[in-house]
Amino acid sequence: MAFPIAVNLDWEEMTTERSVQKFPLGSVGRMLDGRSFRYTQNGATALRAGCVVQSPAPLVISASGSSGPNVLIAGSTYTSTWKVLTIGTTNTTAVTKDYFKDGWLYVSSTNHATLVGQMLQIKGNIASTAAVAYPQTLSLELYAGQHLTQTLNTSDYGISIARNPYASVIVVAQGAAPTGDILGVPAIPITANYYFWLQTWGLAAVEASTALSAIGSGVVYSTDAANTGIDDIYATTGIGGLNSIGTIKATSVAGAHALVDLRIQP
């Protein structure tokens, strides 16, 4: 199924959560009012509307080259007739089915001078069992229409696979630095493990840990052990070096939802 570069969202679609995935993770959605969203899968805990959400701690697996009948050959386009691509990995933890769905296989080593930096998107993976020692075999299916510009030898090392950052997102923990990327805020309450549109850009009502009064001031996620949400970047101590995720558009008392112009992903 082909999807547009950006999904035009109406109110009903933007406020609908689903138990079944409808779009590829990370798909861009836009409202006519200028707000932007990313298609996201929630993790195992329900999310509040307006809470600050992050990706889970990243899992990147180093792997050896491809093997089997679907070895990655220069200029050979991946098609639906290629069932799986089998790689050996250094991972020693079992991987559940489709854990890497909509994630990436990429050439990470400069040993492949003409291949390093090239990426292929993963459609899904077959469940694996934990391995006592290297290598563990992991079978991936790739999206059709992709190919590398040079053959990746079966004995080569220096490729990696990474999970999509919009899979199994979590709320930023109270009083703690995030363990993944700050991604956005849900516009509605979200059920555990459901798919939804996560707001990343434009006006949003966001949980505020402290009173916000400086219109135009930047805001960051809260590091207050008693609260979650956002703090004024200029009025709060101990947050130096943190990136602003937006600006205050209207004053707010502590514990309320503040009107924020998000500036995370357009």
Can you tag this structure with a few keywords?
266 residues, mainly beta, 2 domains, 11-stranded mixed β-sheet, 1 helix, 17 strands, elongated
Number of domains: 2
Query: What percentage of amino acids are in beta strands?
Result: 25-35%
**Gyration radius from CA atoms, angstroms:** 21 Å
| Poorly predicted segments | 232-241
The number of strands is 17
The separation of the N and C termini measures 24 Å
* Mass-distribution shape: elongated
Sheet with most strands: 11 strands, mixed
Run of helices and strands: EHEEEEEEEEEEEEEEEE
User: Count of helices?
Assistant: 1
Counting helices, strands and paired strands, the structural category is mainly beta
Overall pLDDT metric: 79
Summed up:
The chain has 266 residues and is mostly beta strands. The protein has 1 helix and 17 strands. The strands form 2 sheets. Strands 1, 2, 3, 4, 11, 12, 13, 14, 15, 16 and 17 form an 11-stranded mixed β-sheet that branches. Strands 5-6-9-8-7-10 form a 6-stranded antiparallel β-barrel.
